[in-house]
């Protein structure tokens, strides 16, 4: 009888140890990050089914090495090409919550300033883990990619891509930090006449190339302005984006205002919006274009 009691106690201890070990292993697979809203996002294990709620987020998921875990995207997610075969969950400003529920993701990555707050709150209320993304600076792009890597279990790949991105930014900074500064007007659209302020990532890119955003002091991130203020601020360079990879015809409308320095010297430039308006590693392409354009504006004889 005593032997039976001892054996039972040993068996109980062994079971407890096994249970503790199992709990420890489960705990060790959990991942956690703090998102851009300051909230902690914790998953019991790295995500295997991810929904992206913005085109730039879709790109960054691929950059983080987690593209094979992506199961749903929003409209205008067109890079890399493989994403065009994925199910759509609406537009970034009009999320289809029912479609997301149908896909049953274990992680949703949202865009703080682009997605509907009500839709995000609804998804959170349903119990879906939501990471809120808002990369307003070039450094934030690297931060986003690293966080996605942690949450998707691709930490090493994401860290490598993020570090290479930051190295490239630093190299460009070193190359242009001693260049003469140029007053720069970035034109998002012509009707209404719209630009960006100093908190936008494009302003960060312009500064990296030695430009000064003439509307950096505006309170609104994408203010609508007028011709009179342009004449007053008199930019040395005008850089337009538009809606496609083709140079917009409306850029030539500036020739009607020859008193502007940028117009006098034919410093009217274009950059592909996909290369500068998306918060991804491809912004390096847009930065390189802007840097070359501002260099040309510093040396008119080379135009």
From TrEMBL:
It holds the Pfam family Peripla_BP_2. The keyword Signal applies. Keywords: Signal. Residues 49-298 form the Fe/B12 periplasmic-binding domain. The keyword Repressor does not apply. One of its GO terms (biological process) is cellular response to iron ion. InterPro entries: ABC_Transporter_SBP (IPR050902), ABC_transptr_periplasmic_BD (IPR002491), Vit_B12_bind_prot (IPR054828). This is Cobalamin-binding protein. It comes from Arenicella chitinivorans. The lineage of its organism: Bacteria, Pseudomonadati, Pseudomonadota, Gammaproteobacteria, Arenicellales.
